[in-house]
Task: inverse folding
């Protein structure tokens, strides 16, 4: 079974600085997808960024980028120029590349609570 | 474009009761997934519906059941409530063809408290 581990329950960053959130995962599959979701106090999960395992290039979305190390099964999220609105729970998630059944859905880590100091 | 909406937002039940949670999927989405998020934990997959049929299930007992309607809205039913069922229940919709991109669109959840 696949697992996702986030070893940092809480992180803090100064506004405008850079922070990196860690995520490791375990799988025997070669085809899969990785995601970072943000959950603000409003509780609505929002997709931040995704990475296809077959792509070697790290995904980037504006101030958000990932460091995907497939061999190490590591998938960290870097937030540059942190803003007050970035404060939220961040969840790393895994999805099997096979569609259908329970394999078609997300396995989440326990999350990292990010605080942004003004 | 209407997003995913869930109702009720909060509810309190007692042990042994039954509960129904509702979800309206985002316009045009044909797949609905339900997740349970216990306090301090990440969401856990309960099941998924596509074309009104269950299309995948996580490690949850049969007293967790669901429905999907022709308009793609969905219900989650939980029978014989237990204290450990207290959690935030999240609904997420997607287009099946886009499923592998991970574009799940979540609602704000229903917070269930079981006393």
Result:
């Amino acid at each position: 079974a696949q697992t996702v581990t986030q070893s940092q329950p809480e992180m803090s960053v100064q506004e405008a600085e850079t922070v990196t959130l860690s995520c490791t995962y375990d799988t025997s599959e070669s085809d899969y997808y990785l995601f970072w979701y943000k959950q603000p106090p409003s509780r609505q999960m929002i997709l931040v960024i995704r990475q296809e395992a077959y792509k070697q290039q790290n995904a980037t979305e504006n101030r958000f980028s990932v460091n995907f190390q497939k061999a190490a099964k590591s998938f960290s999220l870097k937030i540059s120029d942190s803003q007050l609105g970035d404060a939220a729970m961040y969840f790393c998630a895994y999805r099997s590349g096979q569609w259908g059944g329970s394999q078609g859905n997300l396995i989440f880590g326990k999350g990292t609570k990010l605080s942004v100091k003004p | 474009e209407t997003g995913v909406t869930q109702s009720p937002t909060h509810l309190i039940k007692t042990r042994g009761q039954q509960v129904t949670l509702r979800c309206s999927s985002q316009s045009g989405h044909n797949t609905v997934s339900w997740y349970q998020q216990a306090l301090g934990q990440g969401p856990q997959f309960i099941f998924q519906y596509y074309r009104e049929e269950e299309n995948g299930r996580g490690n949850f007992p049969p007293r967790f059941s669901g429905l999907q309607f022709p308009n793609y809205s969905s219900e989650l039913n939980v029978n014989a409530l237990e204290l450990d069922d207290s959690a935030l229940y999240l609904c997420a919709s997607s287009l099946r063809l886009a499923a592998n991109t991970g574009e799940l669109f979540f609602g704000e959840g229903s917070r269930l408290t079981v006393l």
